[in-house]
Every structure is written in C-alpha cells, then in structure tokens.
Design goal:
Chain A is an alpha+beta fold. Chain A has helices at 3-20, 26-38, 46-55, 79-111, and strands at residues 24-25, 59-65, 71-77. The model of chain B has no long low-confidence stretch (mean pLDDT 81). Chain B has 352 residues and is an all-alpha fold. The chains are: A alpha+beta (112), B mainly alpha (352). Chains A and B meet through helix 2, helix 3 and strand 3 of A and helix 2, helix 3 and helix 4 of B.
Chain lengths: 112, 352
C-alpha cells in the first residue's frame, strides 16, 4: 500500500504537534519532519496542510521579514488547536494500540 | 519591490530552476494574484532558507516536480477560483464605469442633472463584456494546456507563458477595445445603469477583498515587477557580451585591448543620460497631446468644451500607460546596468 495514503491522516497531527512546541516557520517544520523520517513523502504537502490548519483556525500566523529578505510566516497554535491536538493524540494512541494488536497477532500466527 | 521576484537572483541554479517551474505552474493555475503571490513568497523564503542550510532542492520538492506542484496547488478551492474571476473582471468594471461617466458628464454639464436618465452609452458594452468573458475562457484553457504539457515536453518557461498571455491579451484586447469604442451596441443601455452596476461591482469587490489586498500589499507582484524581472534577468550576460564586442572592436581598430574601467566609465555615462530621459517622455506626452488636440480641433472639431477636456484627459491617460511602460523599461535597464557596473568595480577592487 502506498505510504502516502497512511500519511495523509496523520501528517496534519504531526505538523500541529511540531507547531505546538513553539512559534515556528515553514523550513523548521519541514526540517523536523524530514529528521523524523518523513523525507521523500512530503512532496508539496506541507503548505496545503498549513493552509488547512489555518482555515480550521487551529493555527495562526504572523508575518515578518526573514533574515534572507522575503516575508516569512511564523505559525503558532491556537486554543482550538491545542484541544484538537489532544483529541488527535488520544485517537492516534487508541488506533495504534488496536492496529498493533491485530497486525502483531497476524504476524505471530504466520510465524506460528 | 518586496515580493519574491526581488530575491530570485539569490537562488542558485538548481533552486532557481525548480522555482521557475513552480512559478510557471502556479501562474497557469486560475487563482487570484494575492493567493499566488502569498504562496510564492512562502516558497521563496523556504528555498532561500534551505539553500543557505545546504539542503539540496530535491529534499524539499521530491523527485517529481509535477507531483509537488499538484500537491502545492491542491488547497485551491472554489473560493480562490471565485476570487480569480472577480479579480479578472475588476479592470473591465473600471473601464465600463469610466466610459459610462464620460458619457454622462457632457450631458450633465450641458443640460443639468436631469439629463442623466436620458443618456445612453456610446460604447458597445454588451460586445465588450462578451469579449472579456471569451478572453477569460481562453486564458483558462491556455493555463490548463500549459499545466498539462509543461512537465511532459521540455519545460515551458515563464517567458513562453508570458508571451502567450501577452499575445492573447493583445489579440483580444485591441479588437475588444475597438469594438467597445467604435462598435454599435445591439441594445441601447442607459449610461447611469452601467455606471451604477460597475460601481456596485467594484464596491463589493473592494469590500470583500480590501483588507486582504492591504495586508498582502508589500508581497504582491505587480505587472511592473515582472517587466523589471525580465529586463534584469538577462542583464549580466548582455553586459558581458557588450564588453566582448567593444573589446573586439578596439582590437580591430589597432587600439589594443579595451580596459574594463574605460568600458565601465562609458556605460555609466550612458546610464546617467538615460535616467535624465524622464523629462523627454513628459515632453513627448505633452507634445503628442497638443498635436492630437489641434489636429482633431481642425478636422472634426469639438462640439463642446467638455469634449475637448475629455479628449485631452483620455489622450494623456493612454500616453501615461504606453510611455510610462517604455520609461519604466528604460529606467530599470539603466539602474540594472549601474548596479552591474558597481559590482564589477567592487570585484576589481577585491582582486587588486
């Protein structure tokens, strides 16, 4: 199965989690995702994710001139974003535990 | 200029190449200029930061640039399309408003406010609107074709996109303006109605977009920015070629190699002369208006003083647009050359 299908559901939560640690910007978020192993799976998805999060009012942004010249957007999490993130973490934990049980059970049965 | 265009030259070859393709793709998407400018400004910041960190561009875009562009543009929904369409009709709305008011003014000046309701448009507004709609459809089709083919055939450059847009714009704009100004309207339309309708459209447009336009003002790419970008992009290569040609000429004449400083000095003098041309453009505008007014007065004549005033105002406006464009190109070229000269001198001082 294509990894991107799995990623779609969890990338938003991952990006929101990175932003929740403190005000940050595009490259920092991307560098963190790549460092955690998402390299090669991003392909333009970061900015649509940030746009969606902003539309849902889970993050807010302010604009400031970057050290290299262009205007840079700095993102920070909102109160609604914090609530959403906590709910996401709970859901992710439950799904991971259940999925682990099923997938590991199958693996055990196969190796019998 | 504080948008992404000002920073393109800071990108190295691989980043510039990728950015140029993404810029072409997004420009061929039918989204409004504020959203597109915002996205490209964000991307420029990302690229500059990553380049400075030594990150290869493939780490950001992946190996499939088309996939990157598709993902990047995936968030554009009906709202951005609607904003694009409303932005597209902004200029025609201004035209219709201005020409409706121009039809009303002489009647009001001659016969008072009461004449307002009896004045009909002298311009072919239905025909003009039809052509505007057709050009919008043509623009969308060209955009779709470019987006579809640009990664399949060896890159469709930004220049090809601009040329095709310019050809469509001129090919549609000139006949549509002639049709509008000289064609007969199929139905008589009261000028007050078109003035109010276009004013209402513009009021609603600025009401819904005013704040957005103000917030993104510094990042917005204007038509003049892209003209300046085109002028400055090829400048270093052009100057190098010019120096080589001047050098060859000097050697042919038996004067030996042309010292760089002599070439730079001459270029600097030329550039300073060009920058003084602004007065010539203003004089040209006044002269053309005077000649045009005199010619019209002697041939057709002006029925009323208001016709004369309108003629002068319109002529000056058209000249401002046309001569202003050429002045802007001239000035950008001269300032770009002065900057290149300054950099060459710095390089020479550094080498010494």
């Amino acid at each position: 199965m294509e990894e991107s299908q799995l990623l779609k559901g969890i990338l938003e939560g991952c990006v929101l989690s990175i932003i929740s640690r403190g005000e940050t910007y595009g490259y920092e978020i991307l560098a963190e995702l790549i460092a955690c192993g998402f390299q090669g799976l991003m392909e333009g998805t970061l900015y649509p994710i940030l746009t969606r999060l902003e539309k849902k009012k889970l993050i807010q942004c302010r604009r400031e001139k970057s050290p290299f010249g262009p205007i840079r957007k700095y993102f920070s999490i909102t109160a609604e974003g914090e609530i959403y993130l906590n709910s996401f973490r709970d859901s992710y934990r439950k799904i991971t535990i259940s999925a682990d049980r099923i997938l590991n059970q199958e693996a055990e049965n196969r190796h019998g | 200029m504080d948008n992404y265009v000002a920073y393109i030259d800071q990108l190295n070859e691989e980043y510039k190449d990728a950015f140029s393709q993404i810029e072409t793709y997004l420009s061929a998407e039918n989204i409004d200029s504020v959203t597109r400018g915002d996205q490209l400004n964000d991307l420029m910041d990302l690229f500059l930061t990553a380049q400075n960190a030594g990150t290869p561009v493939r780490n950001l875009t992946g190996n499939n640039l088309e996939q990157f562009c598709l993902c990047f543009a995936s968030e554009y929904g009906w709202k951005q399309r609607l904003q694009y369409v409303s932005e597209f009709f902004k200029a025609p709305a201004w035209f219709i408003l201005v020409f409706s008011v121009l039809d009303l003014i002489p009647a009001v000046l001659d016969s008072g406010l009461g004449a307002v309701f009896s004045v009909e448009n002298t311009t072919n507004i239905p025909g003009y609107l039809l052509i505007v709609v057709l050009s919008a459809v043509a623009g969308m089709m060209v955009g779709a074709i470019i987006r579809h083919f640009m990664f399949r055939f060896k890159r469709v450059s930004m220049r090809a996109l601009k040329v095709s847009v310019l050809v469509i714009a001129l090919g549609v704009m000139i006949p549509s303006m002639l049709f509008f100004l000289f064609g007969e309207s199929p139905v008589p339309i009261p000028a007050w109605a078109t003035a109010i309708a276009s004013a209402l459209y513009l009021a609603v447009y600025y009401l819904f977009n005013g704040r957005r336009l103000k917030e993104h003002k510094s990042g917005q790419v204007k038509f003049w920015d892209t003209v300046e970008e085109d002028v400055l992009k090829e400048l270093p290569k052009e100057m190098e070629t010019k120096y080589q040609k001047a050098n060859q000429k000097s050697m042919k004449k038996g004067n030996g190699e042309l010292p760089m400083e002599v070439f730079l000095e001459k270029e600097e003098q030329d550039c300073k002369k060009v920058l003084k041309h602004k007065r010539s453009y203003i004089l040209a505008a006044i002269l053309i208006t005077a000649i045009g007014t005199l010619f019209t007065a002697l041939t057709d004549g002006f029925e009323r003083i208001s016709d004369l005033i309108l003629f002068v105002v319109l002529t000056l406006l058209v000249e401002y647009l046309i001569l202003g464009f050429f002045w802007r190109v001239d000035r950008s070229g001269a300032e770009g050359r002065l900057e290149w000269i300054r950099q060459q001198r710095e390089k020479q001082d550094h080498d010494e």
